[in-house]
Amino acid sequence: MTPEDLLCEYEQRTNTHQFREVEPLLADDAIYWFSEGSYQGKDEIKQAFEKTWDFIQNERYAIENVQWLAKDETVAVCIYQFRWQGMVEGRLKQGGGRGTSVFQKFSGDWKVTHEHLSSLPH
């Protein structure tokens, strides 16, 4: 699997709304920075994901306009735009923003070690 493959797989698994699908793609000590807080480790990240999935019902998450800033045999970094759409309190809502992801290779497998998402004003 390449970093590009991992990013695609990550997007697809995020849209299952099942953290058990996303979790194998994350480094044990991954750090996530979202607009509403920072999360370290799979347990904290799981709570953040599940809170979002509870708030945005039937969310569809998309990553686009990916630019790879650095890539070698063990580390890769990309920036991108993200979009989401789903039901919030019974009404269709959508939004988006910018993201940065850092991937590292551990024992031959690429994992997400950092994600930073920031929302853009509506």
TrEMBL record:
Pfam families: DUF4440. Gene3D superfamilies: 3.10.450.50. Residues 10-112 form the DUF4440 domain. InterPro entries: DUF4440, NTF2-like_dom_sf. This is DUF4440 domain-containing protein. It comes from Dictyobacter formicarum.
